[in-house]
Amino acid sequence: MRPIVVHVGSEAVPFAKTGGLADVLGALPRAQAELGARTIVITPLYRKETIKAFSAERLGALVPIVVDGQSFTAQVWCAALDAGASCAQPWRAWRRGELGAAAWLVDVPALFQREGLYGPPGGAYADNPLRFTLFVRAAIEAVARFVPETSVLHVHDWQAALLPLLLRRQYAHYPRLARLPVVLTIHNLAYQGVFEASWRLRLGLPEEDFHPDGYEFYGQINFLKAGILASDRVTTVSPTYAREILTPGFGCGLDGFLRRHAEKLSGILNGLDTRLWDPATDPQLPVRYRATSLAGKGRVRAALLRRLGLKIGRASPLFGMVSRLVEQKGVDLVADCIPRWVARGWGIAVLGSGDPVLARMLKRLAAAHPEAVAFIEGYDEALARWIYAGADLFLMPSRFEPCGLAQMIAMRYGTPPVVRATGGLKDTVVDADADPDRGTGFAFDEATPQALDAACRR
Ligand code: ADP
User: How many CB atoms neighbour CB 321 within 10 A?
Assistant: First the structure.
């Protein structure tokens, strides 16, 4: 019997993406399917066009779900998780065992078909607690109705973290399901889903667990804490981060709680989908290349410099960065270094969106040094690939990094990353000076512009 693993999370490639969670939810279920499991990933439907674009098949409507005094009817659609798999009837194919990994898209237009996944640019929707409570209740109803024989439920991040608590407390009418093993993966402990206590009643959360050893968090409710409490196993995305989050410096206020649950916590390093990220086949690149023949990489660099209007010498390094603009990623450290890099004739291309203050900082630097500094504000998958391929070095000076996929993509594209030795960056990048035979990049310790600059000089 092939086990059935059902993942639940708020974004998955190729349907919707804001960060690494989507990469993992697109890749992990497919990797598990290749190992013999049958997998489903349940995720919200954010854009109506997705149905047509991915030939999704309608599974049906779920029973009406009442949250916050409102009744919602969710439709469930099924698509192949592999964008390349042409599949006319994906659900039937999955049922017959011909399709290893499927996605279920939960369709509640009033809640999910909006401008952003979690909020307008730089913000959060006020009804996010309602949206993601409804989402996990819909996931439970969908599993109960369409795959009651599921072996394991695997929920990801705060948006899905209420699932195990609700399942254990409120779904006794599905006795088999209510006892299913649940794994929670924390992709970033900095995002916990903390909301005012008044939401507890509105969302119908169990009263008996609202205390400091439960999901209460300084008088508020905390979705991720509920997940840590009620899951059988908790994983995070690298061994180093699993150790770090047990300390006050990285625990985001949950280190004590995590230490009490440490026996069920482990760190499992993320992987990269090497088919979706491959410079030898990448259809978005202007020129393709492989590890045994790097000539094309130089031509991508030249094309990238032209596209961005940069003019730096042939022997000068071009640094690349593709990132959410948040304090975590050390964007300010990079901004601090840029004037001295420009003075040395170095160039840099940054693609990112997020914090308007960080964006303004980069905009000013690009305006002051138009031939050496390019800042492209926004989210652009094709340009990201040009930067991974065309840069000589990739910058990722994160203050903390649960795993990080960007540095893995950079290494896959032959672009050594310059990283801070923290979390998953420490577990994936081998410093070229510390280990010349196996080195894949450059790592530094202090979160300061001086330490970043010294690593870049090396
Ligand atoms: P995080 O999940 O914390 O944002 P990761 O390194 O794990 O960081 O994953 C980031 C993913 O999002 C990578 O696939 C990266 O290429 C992508 N990404 C981030 N910002 C952008 C952007 N502005 N445009 C295109 N892709 C982006």
Answer: 26
How far, in Å, CA of 7 to CA of 104, rounded?
10
CB of 18 closer than 8 Å to CB of 12: no
> What is the chain's alpha carbon radius of gyration, rounded to the nearest angstrom?
23
Alpha-carbon torsion angle 202, 208, 212, 218, nearest 10: 20
- CA distances 39 to 57, 99, 182, 183, 358, Å, are 17, 9, 14, 14, 39
Alpha carbons 389 and 304: distance in angstroms, whole number: 9
Q: Is 322 in the pocket of ligand 1 (CB under 6 A)?
A: yes
Q: Measuring CA to CA, how many Å separate 339 from each of 197, 347, 445?
A: 47, 10, 22
* pLDDT on residue 1: 82
pLDDT of residue 53: 93
189, 322, 407: residue to mutate for ligand 1 pocket, most atoms within 8 A of CB: 322
Residue pair 341/350 in contact by the 8 Å Cβ criterion: no
* pLDDT at residue 83 in the model: 63
398: Cβ below 6 Å to ligand 1?
Answer: no
CA-CA distance, 143 to 260, in Å (whole number)?
Answer: 31
* Average pLDDT value for residue range 230-237: 98
> Stretch 85-98: mean pLDDT, rounded?
88
412 Cα–ligand 1 center, Å: 15
Exposure pattern of 365-388 as b/e (b: 16+ CB <10 Å)? bbeebeebbbbbbebeeebbbbbb
Global confidence as pTM: 0.96
Averaged pLDDT, 443-451: 98
- Which pair of tokens denotes residue 267? 């760190």
In the sheet where 38-44 sits, what is the strand order? Answer: 57-61, 75-80, 101-107, 38-44, 4-8, 152-156, 182-186, 233-236, 265-267
**135, 160 contact by CB (below 8 A):** yes
Give distance in angstroms: CA of 288 to centre of ligand 1: 22
Q: What is the C-alpha separation between 100 and 251, in angstroms, rounded?
A: 36
Ligand 1 center to residue 447 CA distance, Å?
A: 20
| pLDDT at residue 86 greater than cutoff 90 | no
